[in-house]
Amino acid sequence: MELVKQLYDWMLSWADSPYGVPALFALAFAESSFFPLPPDVLLIALALGNPANAWWYATVATVGSVLGGALGYGIGWYGGRPVLKKIMGQERVDVVHDYFQRYEAWAILIAGFTPIPYKIFTIGAGAFFVNFKTFMMASIVSRGARFFLVAGAIQLFGPWMKEFIEHYFNIVSIVFIVLIGLGFWIVKHQGQKLTHKTSVREP
User: Which residues contact 36 (CB under 8 A, 6 or more apart)?
Assistant: First the structure.
């Protein structure tokens, strides 16, 4: 725990330096493949210090994270299963494999937005040969949604939102995923109704 606290304080220290934005990019990049702490820590600190640039910080974090995810994918592609076994154990590797087999893009979307360690899924996506375009699109959507939600909340509501995010991010994540799922269901349902109506009208 002491090491985690030191890493946390070290990340926050970049917010007061001229290199806060490059550090945010580097940390977001690293977190997607090997760094243990999420870049939200620095993103929140930067957004609190300069709310007007919150969207820019979210953009930097998203780009860094997606590119880092591509690196994680490459690690997985070129020998990620042994790496995953060392990190997680065979039983959890089998669980992740099962998620990819059944849900593919959904697994990446959920992992990219929630506190689930994203690096596990970036390496897993490569190790289990998920389509790279699908992986990248899901990464852009999920990581962008996460970082822009955090930055937007800080910009709108200020310092008190920092504590809310830290305490209730898991709940916010679940609600957001449910809303995404509901949106996809509505689109799919309406599309099926439209297709049915069109087929009925045809002679």
Answer: 4, 7
